[in-house]
Write a structure and sequence with these properties.
Layout lengths: L2 H4 L22 H22 L5 H16 L9 H18 L23 E2 L2 E2 L1 H21 L4 H22 L2 H5 L4 H13 L6 H4 L4 H12 L5 H32 L6 H14 L1 H11 L3 H29 L3 H11 L3 H11 L1 H15 L1 H17 L10 H7 L3 H16 L2 H33 L14 H28 L5 H4 L1
Helix pairs in contact: 2-10, 2-20, 2-21, 3-4, 5-6, 6-8, 6-21, 8-21, 10-20, 10-21, 11-12, 11-17, 11-22, 12-13, 12-14, 12-18, 12-22, 13-14, 13-18, 14-16, 15-16, 15-17, 15-22, 16-17, 18-19, 20-21
Amino acid sequence: MSSDRIEKSSPEIIQDELKPPKGSWFRTDDAIAMLLGFGLIAIAGVVAVLARSDNHTQLARDLEQVKSELKNRPSDSSDLGNNRKELLDAQAKLEGQLAVSPMKPWIVKPNDWATNPLQAFEKKGKSIAPALFVTFLGFLVVFGIGTITQGNSAVSFAIGFIGLFVLALAAYLLAGQEVVKHYNLEYALWAVLLGLLISNTIGTPKWLTCATKTELYIKTGLVLLGAEVLFNKLLALGLPGIFISWIVTPVVLISTYLFGQYVLKIPSKSLNLVISADMSVCGVSAAVATAAACKAKKEELSLAIGLSLIFTVIMMVVMPFVIRVSGMGEVIGGAWIGGTIDSTGAVAAAGQLVGDVAKDVAATVKMIQNILIGVVAFGVAVYWVSFVEPREDNQRPSVFEIWRRFPKFTLGFLAVSLLLSYCHSQGVEGKALVSSIVDGATKPIREWLFCLAFVSIGLESNFREYRHMLSQGKPVILYVCGQALNLVLSLFMAWLMFEIVFPNAASELVR
C-alpha cells in the first residue's frame, strides 16, 4: 500500500487489493495466492513422501488391522473397555508414525506461558529460536517472490516484513499467556489490536506499509484452508450437516441483508452485504471473498472483521455455558456451535469446552459450511453486477464481467479441497499423506498467514474511518440481529435433524 493512500479521506479509500493490478493475469493477488498455495502443498506432499520410513507399508497394514478390531469393540461394551483403550492408543501411535512431516518442527509459533514470556520460546528445554527464524525466512522468501512477481521492490518488502512478523509474533505471545488463553482471547484479536494501536497513535510507518499485503496473506491462507475442508467430512454427517450448513446459512445471509437494506436502511450496500456474509457463513474467509465480489471498501471489510472477532470471543464463552446448563447434549450443542460461531478455530475451542463429541460435530458442521465460500462469492458477483451497479445501457451484464468480478482464489480453495479429499479416500496411506500435509505444514502456515493478515488489517485501519459507518450503531444492530436469527434457526435445525429426523446421524463421529 502506498503512503498517499493512507492520507486520502475515507470515502476515497478503495480496497486496492480488491482491484487486479495492471499487467498480466499472474500479477493479481488471486493468481499469486493460488500459485503459492499449490506450491506449498506440493512441497509438503513431496517432503512427506520422501520422509517415509522403510517399514511404512507394514505400519499401514498394522493400522488397518487395529481399525478393523476397533469396529468390533463397541464403545458401550464395559467388559472390553480396557482393550478398546489399548487399541485406540495403538491407533494414535501408528497414525503418528505414518504421518511423518519433516517440515513440522520448522514451522513454529510461541508456546503457552504463565509468568515469564521467555518460557514461550522454549519447548522441552530447547530453544525454538532457530525454528522461528526458519519460519520467518520461509515466509520472507515465499512472499518476496510474490512481491517481485507483482513488480514491487523486494528490499522494501523485506524491511517491512521484519516489522510485520515481529508484530504477529507479539500477537501469538499475548494469546499464549495462561490467563488470556483461559478466556479464549485468540491471536486474531491481539493481532488486530496491535495494528490498530500503531495506526491510531503514531500512525503506520511508510516502511511498514510495504509488507501489509492483507489480501494476499488471507487469500493464500484460504487456498491452504481447502486442504482442511475434506468432502469426507460432509459424508460423515450427511444430510443433517448439509441442512444445518447449506439451508440455514443462505436464509440467514439473505434475511440479514434485506433487514439491513429495508429496515435499518444502511447507506452502503457493500458494507451491509460484507457484514451479513461474515456473520452468517464463516467469518473472515467469507468476508474477504464477498468484499472482492462487491468491491467493498477497505474500512468496510475491516469493520466487518472487527465485529466478527468481538462477537466470536463472546460466543465462545457463552455458548458452551448455555449448552451445559440446558443439558441439550453434545451432538446438538456441537452442531449449534458449528453453525453459528464464525472462526473455525474458535468453533473447535468452544466445542472442546462442551466435550470431545461436541468438538468433532462442531468442527464437521463448520467445515461443511466453509464449502459455501466459493458459492456465496459467485452468487454475490452475479447479483452485484446484475442488480446493484448502475448500467447506462440497461443491458444485462456479460459473463465476462461476472467472471472478472468473481474472486478466483476460491477456485483454488475448491481445487485443493477436491484433490486432498481424493487422496484421503485412498485408504490408510492416503489419509496419512493428507495428515502429513495438513498437520505438518499447511495448517500452521495458514494460521501464520491469518495472523499476518490481521496485523495488516489493524495497520491499515483508522478509527476515524469508522465514524460515519457506526453512526446510530446500525452495523452493530445488523450483526446482533442477524446473529440472533442465526442462533435460533441453527439451534432449531440441529434439534430437528439430530433429534427427530436423523437421530443416529452422528454415530460415526461419536464412536
